[in-house]
């Protein structure tokens, strides 16, 4: 009996050692392919003037498109919210974590987006998981753009519906796929996070109508930047709630705070409250963050100059890049990818810029397809024209054909 116990202990120890070896090998393999990811330690608030490990840097990495992440009015609102509501929410929204502050933000977001209701989620990832799994299941078919964000793809996989992916922004291909099977949802990013281009939302809305599907739009990178008063990509294209019934937006990018929301009909929101597991089974975000987001919403509507300056900086950068002969993607948004091709080249470019005290992220597979590694340059209204010029000067020194 004792010998059997010893044998089982040895087997368990061997299994643990085997797993450790396998994990170590897996890490070594991705490092050998220049795909290993490392975190930087920031020593300053999110802003163009970053401090990384004690070293001053010019930051072109973030998604703080309107320069609100370190805005004094929003900081003051967060402090006031903490004084009023404390730090944590204490529970899930459906237990006792749903505060008046959360509710006020939901009502303001509904009004801002022109929808009857809005529902707060902790993150955009959780919002996408929750809404797709609540709206689709076994026997349904979900159609998604091949370059959709991972959270949208994961939501479809988790729903156990059939996931069919169409070529990037190819509405004709989507319509042919829909003809082969009943469509439940057509799901797309509004602004593609690694390419900066806009989805053909009007054509997708027509395809959804013809196919009897709901169009689900993730406007994480358009919300606050595009449309009247920053109302997003749907407003930019003049699409209403009938044409795009499900809108997801985030508050941690252009709005500079944290969290996400889904906006839509009364029926949609009540369905999510009842069936979206990533909403039901998680602690609500701190009410103080909702207070801060309300202030951010006010500033987004008030400070129209932020979007104007951002568009001027985008134009300045693209003109300078064109003069340098740089191969930029066709993007009119703050996301400006510079294609490198190989992961090794993208990493080398990023490291060369970092040596010049400029932060630009090297985006490599699996975030982007093989052979399309790139620098993801992102601009903010908080950048100055001379910041853009300094970046262009540094890009001009990169070995583009090495």
**Uncertain segments of ≥5 residues (pLDDT<50)?**
none
* Number of DSSP E strands: 13
C-alpha Rg (nearest Å): 23 Å
Distance between the termini: 66 Å
Question: What characteristic shape results from the CA principal axes?
Answer: globular
Structural class: alpha/beta
Keywords:
402 residues; alpha/beta; 7-stranded mixed beta sheet; 3-stranded mixed beta sheet; 15 helices; 47% helix
Give a verbal description of the structure:
The protein is of the alpha/beta class. It has 15 helices and 13 strands. The strands form three sheets. Strands 3-9-8-7-6-4-5 form a seven-stranded mixed beta sheet, with helices on both faces.
